[in-house]
Amino acid sequence: MKARFEGILSRYGRSVLLINRKTNLEKAVQAFVQPVLKRREELPFTATPLGAVSGQRWLYIGPSGCPLQPGDEVSCGQLRLAVQEVQTVLWRNEPLYCRAMLRRRREVAE
Question: Residue 98: which residues within 8 A CB-CB, separation 6 or more?
């Protein structure tokens, strides 16, 4: 199952850069990163063909061999996202993939 999932990631995932907050080490991986759908009554949101999406929260699904910690960053194109919550999803007691909730990184004024 793990090999099948990694094949799906390599074929359909997008290239992202994982940045460790403590060491600033960067690692390139293939992962799924997409905005979290939310109810239309909540603001702020953007209407898309899939429904209303939040510009605030993002979902990350990536390989289990690249564990993330809260505070780490995910760079996806021009988008820099901070990791808030992380969970390793198991299948038959073996790590299958890493799931994380991300938020836009707060820019620091210079």
Answer: 60, 61, 62, 63, 64, 66, 67, 68, 86, 87, 88, 89
Burial zone of 103 (CB within 10 Å; 0-12 exposed, 13-18 middle, 19+ buried) = middle
pLDDT tens-digit series, residues 52-102: 555 578 999 999 888 799 999 999 988 899 999 999 999 999 999 999 999
Q: 86 or 38: whose pLDDT is higher?
A: 86
Among 98, 108, 29, which Cα is nearest to 68's? 98
Residue 28 contacts residue 44 (beta carbons within 8 Å): no
Quote the tokens at residue 53: 């999406």
> What separation, in Å, do the N-terminal and C-terminal C-alpha atoms of the chain show?
47
For residue 44, cis peptide bond before it (omega within 30 degrees of 0) = yes
DSSP collapsed to 3 states, 76-94: ECCEEEEEEEEEEEEECCE
Question: Which two structure tokens, joined as six digits, stand for 39?
Answer: 């109810």
Q: Is the pLDDT of residue 48 over 80?
A: no
